Amino acid sequence: MFSLWIAVIIGIVEGLTEFLPVSSTGHMILTQSLLGISDDEPLMKTFTIVIQLGAILAVVIVYWKRILRILGINREPVAVKAGASRLNVLHILLGIVPAMGIAFLFDNLIETYLFSPKTVVVSLILGGILMIIAEKKMDRTRGPVVEDMDGISYRQAFTIGLYQCLSVLIPGFSRSGATMAGGMLHGVTRKAGADFTFIMAVPIMFAASGYSLLKSYKNFTSDDIMFFAVGFIVSFIVALLAIVTFIRFVQRMKLTYFSYYRFALAAIFIVYLWLT
């Protein structure tokens, strides 16, 4: 069994990066590489899935009222602009179906050939460029924009879902970065795009994690319970803090700053890969 400090470190990385536009997958691959953990280690693959569930739970806690309203359980009235539909299950389905289809068709190929530090370095750069383009496009927008996720149209939901496919096809691209940038390119503000991204993440991450867990649950034994529990709890707490903090600042914090971070991280790991 791995040391508990490894569970804490990876749990922090997962919780901090899962919902920020910096790519949790990329950070996980790079972190495991720094810790000397093989990509083929069966226990770590299952551990990664478990701590993702901790991050998902954090989203459910933060957005529980919205989730109940989407499911029709909480019928609290919501004001939306004329011509828009209050966010509902169809919006979520339109947002997740493209990415889930890509994952179903190409999951094994992507995991076999693209899950590597070199791929992550490239996708960190490409994702950063996309976010800069999105910010410039939003700065030039003079027409009406969607400022709340309840104003997102079905067409915008599907379009954002198409951008989410980039994060599925290219590890390290970042689901939140791709979807927020995609939303901004099509008239959705950072705040509305972030809220929709987090809500949309619940079913797609739950489905992906559940499917992966069914395939790999045999990789751990009862001796590993503490290792998994520590990672899950740490991931949940850190993700909860990250979501609340990010939502608080996203209205005035441009994605460009996250792009600069991605470029800096890519540069660091280019040097690291060259030296090793």
Can you put this structure into words, describing what you see?
This protein is mainly alpha-helical. It has eleven helices and no strands. Helices cover 73% and strands 0% of the residues. Helix 1 (4-17) packs antiparallel against helix 2 (24-34), helix 5 (89-113) runs parallel beside helix 7 and helix 8 (175-185) packs antiparallel against helix 9 (190-216). The mean pLDDT is 87.
Could you say which overall geometry the principal axes of the C-alpha atoms support?
globular
Number of β-strand runs: 0
Rg on CA atoms, Å: 18 Å
The assigned structural class equals mainly alpha
Low-confidence stretches: none
**Which percent range describes the beta-strand content?**
under 5%
Helix content: over 70%
Q: Number of DSSP helices?
A: 11
Largest beta sheet, briefly?
Answer: none
Q: Could you report the average pLDDT, rounded to the nearest whole number?
A: 87
Termini distance? Answer: 26 Å
SSE sequence, one letter per element: HHHHHHHHHHH
